[in-house]
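Q: Entry one of two.
A:
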Amino acid sequence: MVWQECGDSSLKYNIQCNGEWRQTDGRVAGGSPFLHITIEDFESGETTAAFFDRHRGELISSLRIDRVFEIRGNARGETAPDGRNYIHMEYLWQPSQNDCLYQVVEHTFRSRYYPDRDYGFIITAGVCEEYEARYGEQRTQILGSFKEYE
C-alpha cells in the first residue's frame, strides 16, 4: 500500500491517503472506500457544537431517509493528537439501491488559522460494510492524519 500526502495548498491542509481510496464529491462512492473533505462557514457566534448540530440536520434532510441509518455523534467533542477538539459522527449510508451499505465516519474541526473567516472542515471517510475489517484501520489512520497549517 502506497501512502501519499493529499491536500489543498490554498486552504492549507493535508491528509494522508492511498490509491485504494477514492476522493469524491460526497454524492457518489461507487463501491470504493471514499474520502470527502468539505469546508463550511460557521454562522456568526456559532459554537462548534451548534455547527455540528446544523450540519447533522442538513445531512439528514439532504439524504434520502430510507438510505441513511443510525446517525450517532458526540457533540461534546474529542481531542485530536495535535490537541485540537473535533466532533465525531458515524452513520450507515446507502447512496443508491445498487451501492453497498457504507459505514461512514466524519470528523468536524474548526479552522484555527484564519481569524477573518470562521469556517470548519468536515472530513468524511466511508467503507462498504463488508470491508470494514479490511479498511477500518486505514480509515482511522486517514482521519487522524488531517492537519491544517499556516
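Q: Entry two of two.
A:
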Amino acid sequence: MEIKEKTVQQYTFISKNQDPVHVWIDEWTTQEAGETIFKGRIVVVCYGVALNHFWGSMGRPMKEFILECDTGYILDKFESNVRNSMCPRAYDVAIDKEDNITRTESDAIVEMSESQKEYIKRIIEVIKQGFQEISTKVGENG
C-alpha cells in the first residue's frame, strides 16, 4: 500500500443569515505536453448538507476558478454528483402468488427540490464571497 500525506486548504466562512460554511480544497497541477493542468476537488459542508466535486482541468487555481464560474454551473456539478453517487437506489418490488419477491432496480431519478437548490446556491454565494475577500487581501498584501 502506498500512502501519501498531503496538506489541503480549509476555510470556514461565517456570514449573516447562513450557517457556517466549511470548505476544503485539494488541488494539484500536472504537466501535459508542456502545459500546466490544474486539477482539484472541493468539499463543502454546511449544517446537514455535504457537497463535493472534482475538476480534472480548471485552467487556474481552484479559488480563481470558482470565482469565475457561474453559480448555476457549480450547482449543476454538485447536484449531478449527489444524484449519481449519493442518492439511494429505487426499486420496484413485486410479490407473486407463491410469495416470491422480485426486485428490479427502477429508473427513477431523485431530484433536489427547488428549496434545496436555493439553499445550495446561497452556500455557493457565501463561498464565492469568501474567496473574493481572500483574493482582495492577497492583492493588498502584494
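A: Comment on entry two: The first strand starts at residue 9 and ends at 13. The chain has a mean pLDDT of 85.
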